[in-house]
Design goal:
- This protein has 163 residues and is mainly alpha-helical.
- The protein has one domain.
């Protein structure tokens, strides 16, 4: 329950920060991307401020023996780039540029009840559900190494229990 409340609190702080920074306005994103016209660098300052706060806070937090609400730190270990990451990043960027909103501000805008915000969030959730279903079906279709499950289980069986 504590972790759920902490996550909710962090989400509220994030939403307030996005609103105060004006990042829920699609025009801010459009004006940031319009480098040949009325360029507005405020998005870069908001992102730079967020990166700076994260950079400093992460180093401070990792000096602790463990997190406050869970037993262990869970940090990413992968360092490679694969086609899924690159394609996902491109789709995210294209959607952000076309819609003028990324998921965080989109969820914040949902509280406004405006139709474009609702359409954006419903589309985003639908895309995530479809991607998850596609991933699961691709995993089921992936052939194994040619060893049956029973054969694999027999080679990795537990030692017999003493009676």
């Amino acid at each position: 329950m504590k972790t759920l409340l902490a996550a909710f609190f962090c989400g509220v702080v994030f939403a307030i920060g996005l609103s105060v920074g004006g990042m829920t306005q699609a025009s801010k994103v459009h004006d940031f991307l319009d480098v040949t016209g009325a360029w507005d660098p405020s998005l870069a300052f908001v992102m730079g401020g967020a990166v700076l706060v994260h950079f400093v806070t992460l180093r401070w937090v990792l000096k602790r023996p463990s997190p406050l609400l869970v037993t262990d730190f869970v940090l990413p270990t992968r360092k490679d780039l694969d086609w899924k990451l690159l394609l996902g990043s491109a789709v995210f960027g294209a959607g952000w540029g076309l819609g003028g909103v990324c998921p965080g501000p989109g969820l914040t805008l949902l509280a406004s009840g405006l139709q474009p915000a609702i359409i954006f969030v419903v589309s985003m959730v639908l895309a995530m559900v479809l991607f998850d279903a596609w991933q699961r079906s691709a995993t089921r279709r992936t052939p194994t190494s040619g060893v049956s499950i029973a054969a694999a289980a027999s080679t990795h069986s537990a030692p017999p229990r003493p009676e």
